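Changelog excerpt

This revision adds worked examples to the README so contributors can see how folded entries look when concatenated. The first example is reproduced verbatim below.
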Amino acid sequence: MKVENPFMVGAAYGGKIVKYNWRGDIIWEYSYSDTNHLQHHDIEPMPNGNILLLSWDRKTYLEAINAGREDIESDIWPDKIVEVELIGNNEINIVWEWTFWDHLIQDFDSTLSNYGVISDHPELLDINLVSLDLAALGYNPDLTKATGRVQLKVDDDTSLEENEGYIFHKGLHQIAVIAFEQFINAIPDDYSKKEIAEHTKIIKSMVRKCMNHLKKKEYELDITKYDVDKAVAVTKIINTKSAGATNACRNKIQINLSYWQHHNEKHFHKEYDSFNNDPHIGGRQCLNLDHAYLVSVSHEVAHHVQYAKAKYIKRFRGNYRKPHGDCFKAIYRYLRRDLINPIIDKDLLDDNQQTATLKTKEVLMQKNKTLISDDIVKQIAEQEQQHNVLKGSNKQNSSEMSAIRLDQYATAMIPINQIARTDTGNISEDATNELLTTFQVRCDMTKGQADLFKRNCVLFTNKHDLPKSNLTKTYIMDLFKKLDIKSQASLINHNKGDDVKSPLDTIIDKLVGLTTKTGKQRDGLIMTKKELEDFEIRLKNRFEIADKGRNAVKDAETEQKVIDDVTDALLDAS
C-alpha cells in the first residue's frame, strides 16, 4: 500500500504493509516509510510467518563519497532486503537483512578499502554501476552475472533518478529487484516431471482414502462409490509458487506441491486462525512431507464434499456455503479426528519411542477421544428437533419444551461432570471448543443456545458435588426436582445464585446491551449518549403523566368515599 513520502516523489514505492483476515478486517499493519527507509515494489510472506520486503536505505552523500561514489552531491538510496517478524497488530521485529552497502566495490578511489578490479569480483556490487539494459542481457536471472561492469551495457545518461533533491541508484536498484525475485523463487521446492508424477500418485491415493472414510454411515454424508471415484478424477496436482493454488470446490481438488506448508521435515502445519487452536482440526505437528500432504488433502477433500454433497443433507442446508463455517468444520473433523490425526500421532510416537512416556501416549489418545459419546449426542439432537417443532407451536407447549430441555441437560451433565477442571473451576479451551462444536453442528443448536447449554452444564456440575462414577440421569432429574428447577430459566437463576439480576438490572441490560468478558456488546439496543438523554427526558415525562393519572384516580376514590360516607349517614339518619 502506498503512503506519501516527500523524499521519493514519483518513484514506484509502497511504504505500508497490511494484513487482512478472510472477512476483510485489518489484523496487522505497519508503515516502513520514513526519512531513512522506504519499502518499494514487492513483499513476500514466508513459510515461518515472517515477511520479506524490499526497501530503499538512505545514505548521505558523504557516506557515498567515502564508499567510492564519483560525482555525487546529494544523498543516495541503495536497496536492501529485510525479513521482519510481525508483532502484535502494528509492530515488527527485524530478524535479518541483506543490504548492498555491505557488498560494495569500486575502481575510482584507490585509497579506500573497497577498491579493486570489478570484473574479478562478481560477488560484489559496483557503487558506480549506472543501469542495466535487461533486454540486451536477455533478463538473465543469475545475479552473479549481473554485477561485473564488463558484462553490462551502461547508459551514461540515466545514472541517477532525481526525486526532490534525493536520488536512488538505478543500476543497483535493478539488481535489487532481480535479487529479491531470486530470494522468493528459492523458497519452494522444485520438482521434476517424474517426481510430480510420483507425488500425484501419492496424493490421489490420499484423496481416495479420505473419501472412503467419509462413506461411513455414522457420518450421514451419503458418500457413494461414484462420489469417491469422482473426487479422485477431479484431483489435480500442480507445482507453482503462486499463492492460494491449493484449493477445492464441487468439481475440483487442487494440491500445490510447492505450497509453503509442504515440508519433508518435522514442522508445524498451521491452519486458519479461526480454528488453528481447535484440538482436532487446528494446526498440528507433522513429521514429514506425507503428513503435510495428509493434512492438506483432508482439508481440501472436506471442502469438496462440502460443496458437492452438503446442500443435499438436511442439517447442512442452511450453512454449507460458508467456506470455513460449521459445515466445513464438521466434515473436516470427521477426517482429522478419526483418520488423519491418529495416523500422524502414531508416527510421532514411533519416532520418539525412546523418550515417549506413558503419559505422552495417554495425552495423544485423549486428544482424539470425544468428550460426549455418539449415543448421547444422537439423543440430544433428537430432543433438539422435538423442541424446535414445539417452539413453532407457540406458548401452549412451553411446559413440554421445558421438560425436553431439562432432560437434555440431565443427559449432557453425565459426561461433562467427568471433564477435568482448572483451578478456577473452568474446563480447558480445547474441551470448550469441542463441546460447542458438538452442540452446534451435531445437535443442531444455535450458537447462542450451544454456549448457554455448555455454560449451564459446567456451572451446575461445579456447584454440586455430583458422583464421578455411576452418575445417572435419574439422579440429576431428582436433584432438579428437589431444587425446584422446572425450566432452563430457573436453572440459569439457580446457577447464578446471589448474582441473580434484579428486574431493574434486566431492563437496563435490554436497553443498553450486555457486555461480554471480551468487551463485545450483544443483545440490547446499545444506546448512544444522545439517545440516553432523550430516554431520560421521555421517561420523566411518562412518570409525570403516570403520577397525574394515579393522583386523579386517588382523588376520585377519595371523593367517592366522601359521597359514600354522606350517603350512609343520611340513610342511617332516616
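The second example, added in the same revision:
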Amino acid sequence: MFKQQEIILEAAPRLAATLEKYQWESSPKNWLELAEAKSQNFSVILPFVGAFSAGKSTLLNALIGAPLFPTNIDPETAFPAELFYEPEERITGAVDNGKKIPLSRDDLKHNLPTLLPKDGYVSVALPHPLLARLPHLRLVDMPGWDSGIANHTAAIDNYAARSLAYCVVVSAEEGNLRESLRRALRELAVHKMPILVVITKSDKKPSEDVDAVAEQVHNEIVAVTGQQPFATVKVSARKNQFDELIDALVRLEQNAEALFARNVTQTVVPKLVSFSAHLDTLINSDDLDSEKIQAQCDQLNADMATFATRLDDETRQLETRVQPVLGRIMDRIGTALREDMDSLVSDAMYGGDLSGSIGTTVRLAAQEGIANEFNPEIERYLNRAIEGLPADFSPEINYAFDNGHDDRDSDSPSLTITPTLTTILLPLLKFIPKLNVISTVILAVVGLLESLFANKQKQQADEARQRESVRREITGTVIPDVLRQVRAALQPILEGHIQSAKQKIADTVKAQQTSHIAALHQLQAKLAEGQTAFAAARAQYQADRDNVTQLITSLESAQ
C-alpha cells in the first residue's frame, strides 16, 4: 500500500467526525467517502488491444500458466475480461445494473454468450505470483479492435477513460499495424497515455525478422501518436518467453503510485486547505461581537446574490458562443473525413467497416476540435464567473467534470481517470453513423467487382471508375449526412456541458457559503456563552486546524 493511501485511510474516520462537528460542506458532499473508497481498493487499468489474431488471450493464458481465457473464438462472443490479484480465486460476470454473478472457469470458455448481456464483462481475481507483483494493475483482455461490432467498440471506448496505459499487441506474422489499430491509436494519442508494444509469436520468425517487425511497429506508433512507446517487447507464448514483458509491467506498476497521487491525493488536499481556511475564520475572531458577526452574514448573503446574477450573465454570454464554436468543430470534422477519403472508399468497396471508420474519424476530430475550440471558452467562463467572490472563498473548480464512469467492480472499485475530452464527449464516444444512403451503392459495387475478376483485362480500369463513383457518393451524400448527424448529436452535448459547468460552480460556492455562515453562527453562540467558553472553543478550533495542517503536510511530504 502506498504511503499516501495509508495516511488517507488512517485519517478518514477522524476527519469525517471533525467535518461533521463543524458542519463543514464542500462539493461534492461525499468527497471524503470517495477518496476513502478509492484508497481502499486502488487499481488502474491496462487493456491489451489488437487484432483478433494477435494472440492477446493466448498471451495472458501463458502469463498465468493456465488456459483460462478462450482463444480462437467467434468475435461476436468476445467479452472484456479483467485479470487482477486477490488471495483467493474469484470469477464474476457483470450483468444488468452492475449486478455480478459467479462464474466458473468452464463458463469463461463456453457459456459467456448465454450468461452475459452484450455489454457485459468478466472479472477474474487470481492468487498468482506474477499478479501479486502487480497489485495495482488490472490486465484487460479486450475484444479485437478490428471486429467492427458496436458493443466491442463501446467497451473499448469505456476503457479509454479508465486506463493507466495501453498494451498494443501485434503478431510478428502481421509485421505492421492494421489500419483499424492505427485509427484506435490516433484516439489514444489524444489522451497522452503510455503505450506498451508487445510483439507476439516471436518464435514464428527468425530473430532478425522479429527485430525488424518490432522496429517497424515502433516507428509506426511514433508516426501515428507522436510519442515514443513506453517499451517495445517481444514474447513467445509457445516458448514461455516473457521476461521483457514482465519487466515492463513491473515498471508500469511502479508508476501507479504517481497516478494515485494525481487522482486521489490531489483531490483531497484542496478540500483540506479549504477546511483549514474555514477554521481560520473561527480562530481569528478577537475583535468580533454579535453585531459584527451578523453584519458579516448579511454582507456574505449580498455578495452571493451578486455572484448569482453574474453567473447567469456569464452563462448567457457563453451560450451565444456555442454556435460559432460548433461551426468550427464541424469544419474540423469535415476536413478530417475528406482527408481519410481513400481509406473510406476502400472500406466501402471491399467490405470494410465503413461506419466504424467514419465513427473513429469523427470522434478523433471532435476531440481535437473541442480541446482547441470549446475547452478554452469554458475555462475563460469559469475564471470570469468566480471573479469578485470574497477573498477567503476558494472554489475548487475544474473544467474537466466527472464523466459519469462508475467503478466497474463495486466490491473492488478501480480508479476512474477523467481526461478532459472524454468527459465532454461521452455521449459521442459511441457514435456510429447510419449509412443507409450508401448501402445500395456499396452492394452494387461489390457485386460488380466480383464479376470483374473474371475479366482481368478490364478490372483495373473498371475498378478505378467504381472507386471514383464511390468517392463521389461519399463526398456528396455520406459526409454531408454524417455531419448533420454529428451536429445534431454534438450541440446538446456542448449545451449540456455549459449547464453542468454552471451547476458545478453554483454548488461549490453554495457549499462554501453554507459553511462560512455556519462558522459565524458558531461564533455567535460561543460569544453568547461568555469569554471563558469562547476561549475554550478557540483553543479547540486551533487544535483541529493544527491537525488538518499536519495531515496536509504528511500527504505532501509522502509524494
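Reviewer comment on example two: Residues 399-427, 437-453 have pLDDT under 50 and may be disordered. Residues 292-531 form one domain.
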